[in-house]
Amino acid sequence: MSTDRFVSPDDIRSLFAQAMSTMYRTEVPLYGTLVDLVAEINDAVLTAHPALAEQLDRTDERARLDQERHGAIRVGTAEELATLGRLFALMGMYPIGYYDLSVAGVPVHSTAFRPRTAQALARNPFRVFTSLLRLELIENAALREQSAAILAQRRIFTDTALALIAQAEREGGLDEADARRFVIEALETFRWHGDATVSLDTYHALHDAHRLIADVVSFRGPHINHLTPRTLDIDAAQDGMLARGIDAKAVIEGPPPRRCPILLRQTSFKALEETVHFPSGDAGDAGTHTARFGEIEQRGLALTPKGRALYDQLLAQARDSGGAGSTGQDYPTRLAEAFIAFPDDHDTLRREGLGYYRYALTDAGRANPGAVGDLPAEALIAAGLASADPIVYEDFLPVSAAGIFQSNLGGDEQRAYAAHANRDAFEQALGMTVEDEFAIYARLQAESLASLRSR
Ligand code: OOG
Ligand code: NI
């Protein structure tokens, strides 16, 4: 049976990412400024560092760089989350990783929907950080019930989107015309609504319980709250934002600047205060809401569990020293000092098993299969017969995500919930299990090692 009549999920994802970017540029013009800034910086970095440009060519990251984005949304019910899971599956995006943000005072738990094979990631790595509101963490029972009742009323997907999802599941895909319709219909779920569904009084009550609850419960849909282009130099991006007078977050989240970038570094501009219409009284009320922002990220080496444990330990050390968390003028210094203990050259990172690498034969290796034989990878690298390039981190960091949430909730609210990780409940709501990110990186590395011998 031929499946040619169906558009590949990778193509649907690319179309969707492009459509989302175009929509958000119109909705939040400052996001367009960030995209332009990042394009300028990336051009300059690639010109100044030909070796990096070659590495990105080898790892298929260069072509995707201009298109690369992540976004984030927050939903209110299990049904919404489960339907999103089905919608993203049509675009080849699957739930990877479980993030408990209650520890950071944000009443949600989350996953990232993203592609997971080397080929799909090379085509377009679009990812959406997706959070589910945890009503059970609201203390006020009446407010909890009111929120649940409001959420039960809303329909965040169009009828056509739902019909196309069901059709694709039944038939195994979407043809070109249906794929285009699906992208247009799916986009509706992520659109901003300037009119709330609750009265201004209700909005204030929700807001007093937690700003994020108001954000999820008061609107017709889970508006995309930011989109993030990927830069090759986040320090330059941060300087560029400040130079343009953009109200950037005070500190860059994640590891300090390094020669060999690891994991993820992020900065953002603070959420905009937007006018919202509330349907109270006869004419309604005007109010404001802060939710939508823009972010820039720099991605580096994906760490193994061993490397990640070291990262978590050093980050905690930097944040705890002086008891000042990530605030305080001296935080960048504390961070840099703590991370002296994290090796910063790829040979050491690789040999100590701290990160994942993609192995490939060099021209010399391809020309000389006899010499390659069964030699271990490290011996091939030493002999110039193979290369090892960092596998890029495709996921998120809970401490950083909490910092991004906090700086964008408007105000400096800090609320503590005890740790409430509940992966089982999240998976049950989603109707799928979330995949382990490390298993995916390990598989990508193993595939590349196998390819050294497949001749
Ligand atoms: C998500 C914040 C997390 C990131 O890049 O860590 C995030 C949100 O505010 O909904 O996007
Ligand atoms: Ni983000």
TrEMBL record:
It holds the Pfam family HGLS. Transmembrane segments: none annotated. Its EC number is 1.13.11.93. The keyword Oxidoreductase applies. Keywords: Dioxygenase, Iron, Oxidoreductase. Belongs to the 2-oxoadipate dioxygenase/decarboxylase family. This is 2-oxoadipate dioxygenase/decarboxylase.
